[in-house]
Amino acid sequence: MSGFGNEHVSEDPRCPGALPEGQNNPQVCPYGLYAEQLSGSAFTCPRPTNKRSWLYRILPSVCHKPFEPLEEGHLTHDWDEVEPDPNQLRWKPFEIPKAPQNKMDFVSGLHTLCGAGEPRGRNGIAIHIFVCNTSMLNRCLYNSDGDFLIGDKGSCSSQPEFGKMLVEPNEICVIQQGMRFSVEVFGETRGYILEVYGAHFELPDLGPIALASLSLSQEPMAWPTLATSWCLFAWYEDRQVPRGYTVISKYQGKLFAAQQAFSPFNVVAWHGNYTPYKYHLEKFMVINSVAFDHAVSSGAGQGKASALWVPYQRNPS
């Protein structure tokens, strides 16, 4: 399932026919599933800019206790906390604590570096660093403020509601506003996050050069492009969590937590154009075909990256 912003359809092979035919929200969904629409744009947006996906899940996502403030991480959107400084600045890498001493997962290891604007006005960006040494166990996060573009420099996997996703060290992934996800790590991990408020990542309009440059959305192609991205195959877990599953919301720059008794990754099928995706940076043509040819002929980037995140496969063999 490739192509930036394309329409995709997926259902878990364990439940054939889970996607309703000819309807988005039938009175009775197959297998008794619940239909929910995840919107990435206002419903009044023109068709070409409308972003939405329909998810068919075992239990509704609203079945949780009320949210309460969560004092974790080091997030902020108050850019006036530090006085402006035109001098050159540097900072040391954030230390990753040893797991036996201090377990730190993706959420508790978030640190805001800088930004502009603020989420309430739906305009601006923020740059974060994350460091972690343990997986998110019975915890997930969703961002109510904007999209996360994540660049990982360690070894971890992500599980959005749409399916499982693994990302290699030289790849980036985008998890859009409102999508729940959990991060599993296989050792000490750090990375960067670019967050955008009120907008989504999209390809630029490149005018007359678009035909042979970065804005095509087909694959396979003679020249890989920025639009060569991958979505996920549906995968669900029907799992009760008697001790409680924690759903964390990033809302107006702060964290809130709610408890529920089941795993939120219970989406059996979905269809739409509002999905998480990833992209391999080695396929990006930085300047022109000369630079790309040199990278290929010299073997740059080949065989250097160990497996970090790859699309979830229906048949692992």
Automatic annotation (TrEMBL):
Enzyme class: oxidoreductase
Pathway of action: Amino-acid degradation; L-phenylalanine degradation; acetoacetate and fumarate from L-phenylalanine: step 4/6
GO annotation, biological process: L-phenylalanine catabolic process; tyrosine metabolic process
Key words, A-Z: Dioxygenase, Iron, Metal-binding, Oxidoreductase
Active-site residues, as the UniProt record annotates them: 294 (proton acceptor)
GO CC aspect terms: cytoplasm
Annotated InterPro entries: HgmA_N (IPR046452), Homogentis_dOase (IPR005708), RmlC_Cupin_sf (IPR011051)
CDD domains: cupin_HGO_N
Pfam families the record matches: HgmA_N (PF20510)
GO molecular function, one term: metal ion binding
Transmembrane regions listed in the UniProt entry: none
E.C. code: 1.13.11.5
Keyword DNA-binding: no
Full protein name: Homogentisate 1,2-dioxygenase
Organism: Melopsittacus undulatus
